[in-house]
Design goal:
2 helices; 71 residues; single chain; mainly alpha; 0% strand
């Protein structure tokens, strides 16, 4: 696999896993504020959707991102 999975028996957490919900809420709020302030630079995808829908949204977005990267 690309990313190792964490077994429930593993006790070592990284610094992000040690953060509380308030930290993640603050990060999310900051990114949402940036996306609202600069909608041409940010794309919001609802990753709570089923995987196939998220993949479809990414596939639909890729041509736009590639065109923008080419200038």
């Amino acid at each position: 696999t690309l990313f190792p999975t964490r077994r429930s028996s593993d006790l070592l957490l990284d610094r992000f896993e040690l953060e509380g919900q308030a930290f993640f809420n603050a990060v999310r709020s900051a990114f949402l504020a940036r996306a609202k302030a600069e909608p041409a630079r940010y794309y919001l995808l609802d990753a709570a959707q089923p995987l196939a829908q998220v993949q479809h949204a990414i596939d639909a977005l890729l041509p736009t991102l590639l065109e923008r990267a080419r200038g």
